[in-house]
Structures are given as C-alpha cells and as structure tokens.
From TrEMBL:
<protein>
    <submittedName>
        <fullName>Peroxide operon regulator</fullName>
    </submittedName>
</protein>
<dbReference type="Pfam" id="PF01475">
    <property type="entry name" value="FUR"/>
</dbReference>
<keyword id="KW-0238">DNA-binding</keyword>
<dbReference type="InterPro" id="IPR036388">
    <property type="entry name" value="WH-like_DNA-bd_sf"/>
</dbReference>
<dbReference type="InterPro" id="IPR036390">
    <property type="entry name" value="WH_DNA-bd_sf"/>
</dbReference>
<keyword id="KW-0862">Zinc</keyword>
<keyword id="KW-0804">Transcription</keyword>
<dbReference type="InterPro" id="IPR002481">
    <property type="entry name" value="FUR"/>
</dbReference>
<comment type="similarity">
    <text>Belongs to the Fur family.</text>
</comment>
<dbReference type="InterPro" id="IPR043135">
    <property type="entry name" value="Fur_C"/>
</dbReference>
<keyword id="KW-0678">Repressor</keyword>
<keyword id="KW-0805">Transcription regulation</keyword>
Amino acid sequence: MIKRNTVQKMKIMEYLMSTKSHPTAEAVYAVVSKDIPTISLSTVYRNLNAMAEDGEILKFEVGNEAHFDADISFHHHVYCKLCKNVFDLHDREIASYITEKANIPNFKVESTNLIFVGKCCDCAPEEEMTQNAQASPEFMMN
Ligand SMILES: [Zn+2]
Ligand SMILES: [Zn+2]
C-alpha cells in the first residue's frame, strides 16, 4: 500500500527533529504550513497522532495540550507552568530507578510519562531557585 502525503509527514518529522521545544500540533502547523501552504491543521494532527502511535515520535499531554517530541530515547520532561515551555530531563538516576528499582507487582514497565511541573529559572524568583538548587535535577535548556 502506498502511503499518501509522505511529503507532509517528512516535513513534520524534519521540523520535529530540528527542535527541542516539544511543540504542540498548532506550533508544528505554524512552521510546516510555511513550506506546504495547502496543509491543514487537521492533517498535521492526523500525521502527528499516527507517528506517535507507530512509535516514531513521543506524544505527551501537559497543560491541557498534547506535545510532540522526535527524541524517543528514554527521557523525561520538566514543564514550566508559567512560560509553558517543556524541557528535556536526562537524569540517569531517575531512569535507572524506573527501569531497575521501581517494583510494581504483576506489571512490566515499558515506558513512563513522567513530567515534573514547576517554574523554570527564567520564571521563578531567584530566592525560590537557590532554595532547592541542591536538589534540583539538571536539565537541558534549549
Ligand atoms: Zn518558565
Ligand atoms: Zn523530550
């Protein structure tokens, strides 16, 4: 079976691979529609959902919106509730706890959808950041 609209899917993937911003479907549409003016928001939605279902990209929901990520490696996210940015969290201790130590009876964990919600360093007052600077995990800013 020949898949239709492969160019659209390629453009969507190309954009997702180029960004670490974990865009929503609307944000993907805003960029992709510059290259493909005829593409519709619902087409972008359909492609993103199909790609997520096929395991080609990650889809997760936070702040009542679905976000998409071309990085399908085992990692987690931090979400700033003020500027609504999503950042990658590559923390080996959290990852190894989940894959090795977390003991959920009668259940085999394959993936998680772990999102830390709070304020990023651009949004939080400085005293709040220094308060738990010691405990805060490192995460990659864009
Ligand atoms: Zn922020
Ligand atoms: Zn990510």
